[in-house]
């Protein structure tokens, strides 16, 4: 993928008390005897990059489809850019770009021809703007050289890129990406990360559903974790990780001496990796731990609070939920 986000207009970022880009209250969706989404309350803050996480069957796609007016809720309310959905979805959807459950295009048309058809249906694009918008979107996702090939000959990654290009045809206030890196190689994944960063910098809100926790941790400002149709945790990613912090990590080349000194002082300490020790909470405070090690002749190269990765937090939240 190539290009830059310089041409993207900047939206005003969220201010205190500003309405969220998307909001659901008491949302419930039932398919026959299956409860796909069960009494969910959730806000997607304006200007955020919001990651939606959950195992298969947790309700992520159903929630996204309900937000976009593709599925009518069994109960509860949905707002998208301040408009009730599905009743007033037409007022919000021109400002929303979405890639949900994989892209769908005409197999015998080229990538460019498919994109032109999509652009012709965009209410925010005039006829004279279509050609430039299509070429710019193709460039941004790295499909310019393959734009003349028929869609049926595209690889999975190329199809995903074309779907993303359709999302980028016009400036959006909200972009919804369901597994956007599906089928992409590492270079394509990095480009998706770049495009998300460009959208965020422009002030747009980005909602990303993904099973790649490292990508979510690298790109998102907020997350919601779903399990069995319910939200088990939601909020700012940094606060979610900080809330799960426990222990002090000491990096030292003198592992054996450090463990001996710490355990001799009554601290609970255990090895983490090849050159680090975790000192569990509940023992001596951090300044005393450092002073103890220095007095014991242990070289302390680094000391920091333990901050778990999103993968650890996700596993705990989903495994602890019945």
TrEMBL record:
One Pfam family it belongs to: ABC_tran
MF term (GO), any: ATP binding
Alphabetized UniProt keyword annotations: ATP-binding, Nucleotide-binding, Transport
Keyword check for Transport: yes
Domain ABC transporter: 22-253
Family: Belongs to the ABC transporter superfamily.
Name of the protein this chain belongs to: ABC transporter ATP-binding protein
Species of origin: Pseudonocardia hispaniensis
Classification of source organism: Bacteria, Bacillati, Actinomycetota, Actinomycetes, Pseudonocardiales
């Amino acid at each position: 993928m190539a290009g830059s986000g310089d041409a993207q207009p900047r939206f005003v970022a969220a201010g205190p008390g500003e309405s969220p880009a998307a909001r659901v209250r008491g949302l419930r969706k039932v398919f026959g005897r299956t409860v796909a989404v069960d009494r969910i309350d959730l806000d997607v803050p304006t200007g955020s990059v919001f990651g939606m996480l959950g195992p298969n069957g947790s309700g992520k796609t159903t929630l996204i489809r309900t937000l976009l007016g593709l599925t009518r809720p069994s109960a509860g309310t949905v707002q998208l850019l301040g408009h009730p959905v599905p009743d007033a979805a037409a007022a919000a959807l021109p400002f929303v770009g979405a890639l949900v459950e994989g892209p769908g295009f005409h197999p015998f048309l080229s990538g460019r021809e498919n994109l032109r058809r999509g652009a012709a249906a965009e209410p925010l694009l005039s006829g004279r703007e279509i050609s430039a918008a299509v070429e710019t979107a193709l460039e941004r996702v790295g499909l310019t050289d393959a734009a003349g090939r028929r869609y049926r000959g595209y690889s999975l990654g190329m199809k995903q890129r074309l779907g993303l290009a359709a999302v980028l045809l016009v400036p959006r206030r909200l972009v919804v990406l369901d597994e956007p890196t599906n089928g992409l190689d590492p270079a394509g994944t990095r480009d998706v990360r770049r495009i998300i960063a460009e959208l965020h910098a422009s002030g747009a809100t980005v909602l990303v559903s993904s099973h790649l926790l490292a990508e979510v941790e690298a790109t998102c400002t907020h997350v919601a974790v779903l399990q069995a149709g319910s939200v088990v945790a939601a909020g700012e990613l940094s606060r979610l990780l900080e809330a799960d912090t426990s222990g002090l990590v000491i990096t030292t080349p003198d592992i054996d001496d450090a463990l001996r000194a710490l355990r001799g002082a009554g601290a609970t300490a255990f090895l983490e990796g090849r050159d680090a020790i975790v000192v569990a909470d509940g023992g001596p405070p951090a300044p005393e731990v450092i002073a103890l090690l220095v007095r014991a002749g242990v070289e302390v190269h680094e000391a920091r609070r333990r901050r778990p990765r999103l993968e650890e937090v996700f596993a705990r939240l989903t495994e602890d939920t019945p």
